[in-house]
Amino acid sequence: MRRIRKGHALTAVLLVAVVAGFAIPAASVKASRTGLPTKIGKGEGALNVIEWPAYTDPSFAKKFQQQTGCIIHRKDAGSSNEMFALMHANGGGGGGQYDLVSASGDASLRLIYAHDVQAVNVHLIPSWKNFLPAFKSPPHNTVNGIHYGISLQWGPNTLIYNTKKVKPAPKGWSSIYSPKYKGKLTVPNNPIQIADAALYLMTTKPSLGIKDPYELTRAQLTAAAQLLIRQKPLLKRYWNYATDEDTSFKNGDVWMGAGWPYQTLQLQSNKVPVKEIVPLPTTGWADTWMLAARAPHPNCAYMWMKYVTTPKVEAKQAIVFGETPVNPKACPYMNQLSKGSCAGYHLNEPASYYNKIHFWKTPVPTCGWKKGNSCMDYNAWQQAWTQITG
Amino acid sequence: MAVDAGAFATGPSLRRARLRLSGLFWRRPWLKAAGLLGPPLGAFLIVYVGALAILFISSFWTVNSFTSAIEHTWTLANYRLIFAGGQPYLHIAALTLEIAAAVTVTDAILAFPLAFFMARLAGKRTRALLFVMVLLPLWSSYLVRVYAWQAILSHNGALNWALNGLGLPDQNVAYTNTAMWIVFSYLWLPFMVLPIYAALERIPDSYLEASADLGARGVRTFRAVILPLALPGVVAGSIFTFCLTLGDYITPLLVGGPSSQFIGNTVYRYIGEANVPFAAAFATIPLAIVGVYLLLARRLGAFEAL
Q1: Contacts of B259 in chain A (CB under 8 A)
Q2: Based on the domain organization, do B181 and B246 belong to the same domain?
Q3: Contact between A113 and B256 using a beta-carbon 8 Å cutoff
Q4: What ipTM, to 2 d.p.?
Q5: What's the pTM value of the predicted model, to 2 decimals?
Q6: CA-based nearest distance A15→chain B, Å
Q7: How many structural domains compose chain A?
Q8: Which residues contact B228 (CB under 8 A, 6 or more apart)?
Q9: Which of A93, A113, A161, A312 has the fewest CB atoms lying closer than 10 Å?
Q10: Residue B44's closest chain A neighbor by CA?
Q11: Whole domain around residue B97: which residue ranges?
């Protein structure tokens, strides 16, 4: 018995040591707000990125590696949550391992407030001044005038439907809340989907007073959640990964659903009879290359941000993934790669068009349209989503 | 020569030290046991129990929803939220528990006749063949097996193709809780067959003969002799099927429907939100359930059958 007790004491001591070591780094990471670099130094020979699968596709990354000597090491993430968790692990700030993350708008503010990413000097990125005005300092990656990354590509959330089964073609987002195609619908398994419901309520139920689908009061969040709870019996499933949605359309389990142009392209290339519409107003996503707070290869990271926003590379990535560049100078190159694609991906729209797309941003307690911290934060959205899907 | 002299000088003293050490071990046998068991046991405690303990401790912390930093103030807030009225967490836990129980019962019913045939009726060759067939799925990837079921159950899949061939209407099984139940039952069946087989094989023939000599017919022998002796095997198998289902989160993701959230899915989501404390608190629930289950299983003699 004595031996056992000694073992217990030893374990306890070790535990305390481990817990203490675990607790300290979490608090000590701070974003550096001053001392932005004024020029890009010599490359470090490597670049570690957390990316949406193939966001550093060899078709355009190979040339970068040859030019700069920065060899890219990729970590693919399947969801915004995974990206955030990877960046926040090992003491945060990319864990001293990762340099860049291609964060979407539902993760970018979270990364900023968690001090996992650092400010970048946009003037070191020549293409930045040519960006569409909506993507120079968007609220999802710029806080108090400080830029925490370089916008990359964007796209609207689209309504995809099977042309053989859904007749007549859907006109707007009301189709995914109507029982006409009960059991044949799908929407993403993502708390940010609440914003889609809020946007729908903004026009259909103006009495709620929703001003911004990402800045909801408790009553507005509850109303959006109730709409989604009523929607749930109409759904075949919530899709988790883009390929899940493709599979469901391919197998005939799903006829209509919310998705991205990427899925439509994939399905059409697999000869599945689908089309998409972009009902306005809609939600959309915009991706940002963000620099990790503890990036070990910052020069290579800057070189990548510089390279990937040049018109030719922007055009190439846009065509490969079915998304839209933030740099309108990519337009002629897009048309070279695929005729009419510049207009097809809405790169030539007037500024008013972008006002109708509400780009993802992490919900935070401070409302832009209302005084005080009266909006529901992402934690509350998260809980509401668990409630809806649970 | 100087080198040799040095070697001679250290040689005997080293030997003496070794002798003294073995003497010490002989006088104090517990020291020998500690030396042998210490390293693996220490590693086990730190890695396994330590990880669980840290998880448990962190379940009493909270996360700052703005900075995602962990706040080290002791609170029961996470547990209160789980048990609060109107929250989905108990519902999620209940669903997980229900499916795990259903899968366990299904597997027991499916596995018993198969194991009985393998252990007591089949010839040597048939038995070997059946063993291979039971184990074959375990040699392929888990994901491949789940995706195969997705292909079978989907709208344009093999199931509906076969039903239509028989002139029957389509069944929409894909993306439902029924689909989860079927897939889980398939996945964990081998883990039920093997312990039951082991338990049945151990029953001596003389018991059955004695039962027959005392005038019991087949059914009576089965009920009074075979079933009680096989029960520990069933319970041992159920530990696998129950615990494996309880902790899974991939099958609900791939074949589950809109209301198929498991405990594991919720934990995974909260970890993704960097809310480790809440994830830890929720993960304690299956741990507690398994703990109770194992205590019950021990009562029923499952550990002797493993």
Answers
A1: 232, 389-390
A2: yes
A3: no
A4: 0.78
A5: 0.82
A6: 6
A7: 2
A8: none
A9: A312
A10: A11
A11: 85-305
